[in-house]
Write a structure and sequence with these properties.
The complex is a heterodimer of chains A (about 450) and B (about 180). Chain A is mainly alpha-helical and about 450 residues long. Helices cover about 70% and strands about 0% of the residues of chain A. Chain A has helices spanning about 25-35, 45-70, 85-110, 120-140, 165-200, 200-210, 220-250, 265-290, 300-330, 335-345, 350-360, 370, 375-400, 415-440, 445-460. In chain B, helix 4 (about 55-85) packs antiparallel against helix 5. Chain B has about 180 residues and is an alpha+beta fold. In chain B, about 50% of the residues lie in helices and about 15% in strands. The radius of gyration of chain B is 25 Å and the shape is elongated. The chains are: A mainly alpha (about 450), B alpha+beta (about 180). At the A-B interface, helix 1, helix 5, helix 7 and helix 15 of A face strand 2, helix 4, helix 5 and helix 6 of B.
Chain lengths: ~450, ~180
């Protein structure tokens, strides 16, 4: 077919396929829907679910204790009012970005390899946004008052301050959550219909039947469906870029040294995609192993994701370099002092660890041996996720502890409850993923059938 | 003639997407109007074979986006200038550049909601039951691996025996009548 890539010639190294040959419409349907409908629950799933559920209990206790005692149980103080809550917020929302990038931007660019990873990447986005949204909510200290941030006609005639980036954030994150849910939900409709038609027990038929809304695959329906899906992809693309841009405005609109820079929006977005792809790999590698999905999530996918990480990692490195360069070049003594504190201050070990995790280690991805070595990729993805968390810690804490006046300097260290809340959201995220793979198709079945049609044409 | 009251139409089953495209084209050329093709995934070329017109989803999305954006901007204007003016360091009440992020987000939100709900409304979904689900083969295979074409009894050219015979001539693997209920 004409879509055969030009580099796939005899003398170039063979490219692994995006779908192993030999699959039919029925075989992809069977294989993916069986994970949800017929496969017995494995011991590994139960153990994983139990562990993550325990962590969710840790989260529940932490939040309950927070509500009872107030934010004083955390390590935050004056001047470091943001601490773990905002570090975790930015980290989680960044992770979500890869899901939208895979589902929307790669769709618009007609990258067929997105097909088998977009569904669970979108689910990852939703769960990451849920974890992210929790942090600003509980960081307010009075989460039951959080609705004050939304414009609603109150009896006090109060309205939000629309000139504040924190209000922009409320709109950006809630729009992002809603649009991600819509995108995911629309993609799921045909697959839910498949599950409805293949389910054998009455409760499953009823539940999937209601969720599928009577989808029957009519050509007129598909016609409108494709328009809506394409439009959503087109809308989600600028949206995802805007979300981390607005998150970076939370910092860069302020005058705090180290925050007040114009490089923030692009470098935040690149960092978000970087950490998001790392998280997709962290999930994809065990998932394809546990559910025998190696035919669908092939080496090609893993290698492509590794390449995206390498590219975005270099953009992030460029961002770090420019942070340093601008502070030196500006001659602004506060900025200069902040840069000095990054290298030699009380938190310098975090900064060096960040450079090691985010810039030095990922250079190994230049080697094809590393990109196609699954354990190495898995470890790399964990290292990058750690690095991106450290980046947010460095940004939040070093700047806040070294403000303009020495009298306003301070120290920050997280408490037990900070760690418990963070670990709790890791549990929540993973628990939701465990539930997701058991109740919904982790790979888009309808899109895989399309891929079968395209690739079988190629083989003939 | 009494068939028409409780017959929804006749349906044919095909094994490949290419057969469905051909069948749809031939059905259209045979003069049928009220017919519909069913596929387990969006089949490229099917819309052309059925001569489907452009759909209204993009227009609805545009309107939703415009309403979201304009509504969002003027709402912020109204709040900041009329309802609750706050003097922050002497900045103008209508500090429009600061209103752009929220305006943008609400544009995207309005457009996305209209795209999804507009698509569902135009498709007549949710609709839990449909006469075609009475056909066993359809209910089992339409959303997994087979392709179907249904000529509806509302078509003026429809006649149970003729339409069945016509569908058989399209190389269908299976042809049956669809009961209406």
């Amino acid at each position: 077919m004409s879509t055969r890539p030009p580099y796939n010639t005899a003398d170039a190294r063979p490219v692994s396929p995006i779908l192993e040959p030999g699959h039919t419409y029925a075989s992809v349907t069977d294989k993916i829907s069986a994970i949800v409908l017929t496969r017995p629950t494995s011991l590994g799933w139960v153990a994983g679910f139990a562990l993550t559920f325990t962590l969710v209990m840790v989260l529940t206790v932490s939040v309950a204790w927070l509500v009872a005692k107030g934010v004083g149980i955390w390590g935050i103080n004056i001047p470091v009012g943001w601490g773990f809550a905002i570090v975790n917020f930015v980290w989680w929302i960044g992770i979500g970005h890869a899901g939208t990038l895979i589902s929307a931007i790669l769709f618009l660019l007609n990258q067929q390899w997105r097909t088998s990873i977009n569904r669970f990447a979108e689910a990852m986005t939703l769960f990451a946004v849920a974890c992210a949204g929790l942090f600003p909510l509980i960081h307010t200290g009075r989460p039951w008052m959080a609705y004050y941030m939304f414009p609603y006609p109150s009896t006090m005639y109060l309205w939000p301050q629309f000139r504040s980036p924190l209000i922009w954030d409320v709109f950006a994150v809630s729009t992002y959550g809603t649009v991600s849910l819509l995108f995911w939900g629309v993609g799921l409709i045909p697959d839910l219909a498949t599950l409805r038609d293949r389910a054998v027990t009455k409760p499953k038929q009823i539940i999937y039947g209601m969720l599928a809304m009577g989808w029957r695959g009519s050509a007129r329906h598909w016609h409108r469906y494709q328009s809506a899906y394409l439009l959503l992809a087109g809308l989600a693309t600028p949206l995802v870029l805007s979300v981390h841009t607005v998150v970076s405005f939370d910092f860069s609109i302020a005058i705090v040294p180290g925050w007040h820079t114009t490089i923030f929006p692009p470098y935040f977005v690149a960092g978000a995609i970087y950490s998001g792809f790392a998280m997709v790999l962290t999930i994809a590698i065990p998932l394809r192993k546990a559910y025998d999905l190696e035919d669908f999530i092939t080496m090609r996918h893993l290698e492509n994701m590794a390449k995206v990480m390498l590219a975005t990692g270099l953009i992030v490195a460029y961002g770090y370099y420019f942070e340093w360069f601008m502070s030196v070049y500006s001659g602004n003594k506060f900025d200069l002092y902040l840069t000095k504190m990054r290298f030699h201050g009380p938190y310098s070990h975090f900064y060096y660890a960040l450079i090691l995790c985010n810039i030095l280690t990922p250079q190994l991805l230049w080697f094809r041996k590393v990109r196609t070595n699954i354990p190495a990729l898995f470890i790399m993805s964990l290292i990058i996720n750690t690095g991106m968390w450290l980046e947010r810690f460095v940004i939040v804490v070093i700047s806040l502890t070294r403000d303009f006046m020495p009298s306003a300097w301070g120290r920050y260290s997280a408490t037990f409850w900070d760690y418990a809340t963070f670990v709790g959201t890791l549990g929540l995220f993973t628990m939701l993923l465990f539930l997701f793979v058991r109740v919904l198709p982790a790979i888009s079945i309808a899109e895989m059938r399309e891929l079968v049609r395209h690739t079988s044409g190629e083989h003939e | 003639m009494d068939h028409r009251s409780h017959t929804y139409g006749v349906v044919a089953e095909f094994e490949t997407a290419e057969q469905l495209i051909q069948a749809a084209e031939r059905t259209r050329l045979a003069g049928y109007h009220a017919f519909e093709a069913y596929a387990p995934f969006p089949v490229e070329g099917l819309a052309e074979a059925m001569a489907l017109k452009r759909n209204a989803v993009p227009l609805i999305t545009l309107i939703g986006g415009l309403l979201g954006g304009l509504g969002g901007f003027f709402f912020q204007y109204w709040v900041s200038v009329i309802a609750y003016p706050l003097n922050i360091g002497g900045r103008p009440y209508n500090s429009w550049p600061a209103f752009i992020p929220v305006t943008f987000e609400l544009t995207v939100l309005g457009a996305s909601l209209s795209a999804v709900f507009g698509m569902l409304a135009l498709n007549g979904l949710p609709r839990p039951h449909h006469p075609l689900f009475n056909v066993d083969r359809f209910a089992k295979h339409a959303t997994s691996d087979r392709f179907f074409l249904c000529i509806e009894s509302s078509d003026p050219k429809f006649s149970l025996s003729d339409s069945l015979r016509f569908l058989k001539s399209l190389n269908a693997v299976n042809v049956s009548e669809v009961e209406d209920d």
